[in-house]
Each structure stands twice: as structure tokens, then as C-alpha cells.
């Protein structure tokens, strides 16, 4: 089994970014969605992006359909390695963005039943990776709610994918074992308060993910 990719999402400070990089995160998520407690401005995101070693990939988390002009401005200024879409974007929209030269595209998909896994196949050939998350609540992500991992038993995706939703240092190893997730993504499960990352939790999460 290949080494699990690890995304630490919603970082806002140099200290937590450094902790994630040192702990072995392969991807860093920066949130460009103003209502979120993890929101970073273009200036903040650009500074964090410049601080990140080339071996670690920057993922810009956006809700494109709510503010398309501002989102495109942020993508152009920050120049992420990956853009992760968390809103009501359609396959047609992502196809147009891909054709326009955007970098690697990920699409977050809420999973509440097995049918959601089948519906996710609409993103095959459009998104470079599908990120299975808990269904959207007041916020489109970072809610701390977990996906029912049993739904992934027998799941044979025909695309790259990842698992998010309620992951933390205490459960990520079991989640990987049960689902076979090639990438795991945590945000609120690594916080001492909404939007406040804890460096000890970041280290513990990465260590647990690598222990499988």
C-alpha cells in the first residue's frame, strides 16, 4: 500500500504551517472562504505559500459559485498547486476552468449514503481528485462531522480520492485501515478552538496517519 498522503487544512499562521511541514504533511490547505473561521486573505495566503517548501503542495479551498470573480483573483495571486472546490460547482464549470488553465482541481463531495459514492462518478475525468467529506452544514467543510466509513467497504473508485470529515489523531489510523483512503484531510479535529490549530494535534495526526 503506498504511503498515505496527508493534508492539514485551514492553517492561518506561520507557526502551525511550520509544524505541519515538520510533521510530514504532504498538502497544506488554505481557506479562501470569508465566512469560515479559518479564512485567510490573499496577502496572508501568499505569505504562507511563500513559506512552504516546494515538496509540500498548497491547496486553496474555495467556494467558487458564491464569489467567482474574487475566487479567480485569489487563485491568480496565490498560485496554489491545487484548487479545492467546496460549493455547488458543476462538472461543466470545472471543465471550463480546467480548459482555461487552472492547476490541479479537487472537488469535495458530501457523503451521507452509498448513493453519494456512485454520484461522485460524475466528476471522473473532470476533477483530478474527489474529496469525500461529511455533508455540508452551515459551513461547506470543517464541521467536525465524520463520514460513515462503512460506506466505503467494497468501494472501487476509478479516480483519485481522499477522505475528510471528523478526522483527528485518535481515529485517522482506523479510518485509513477501514477505507483504504489514499489521502486523509483534517481541519477542525486539529484545533483547540474554531480556527485555532494546535501544533501538538497536528504532529499527532501526521504520526498516526503514517503509522498505518
* Largest sheet, spatial ordering of strands: 7-6-5-4-3-2-1-8
Number of helices: 7
What percent of residues adopt helix (DSSP H or I)? 25-40%
State the secondary-structure class: alpha/beta
Q: Could you please describe the fold and organization of this structure?
A:
With 212 residues, the chain is an alpha/beta fold. 31% of the residues lie in helices and 21% in strands. It has helices at 14-23, 42-51, 68-78, 91-99, 114-119, 172-179, 199-210, and strands spanning 5-9, 27-32, 57-62, 82-85, 104-110, 129-133, 161-163, 183-186, 191-193, 196-197. The strands form 2 sheets. It has an 8-stranded parallel sheet. Strand 1, helix 1 and strand 2 form a beta-alpha-beta unit. The radius of gyration is 16 Å and the shape is globular.
What key phrases describe this protein's structure?
single chain, alpha/beta, two-stranded antiparallel sheet, 7 helices, 212 residues, eight-stranded parallel β-sheet
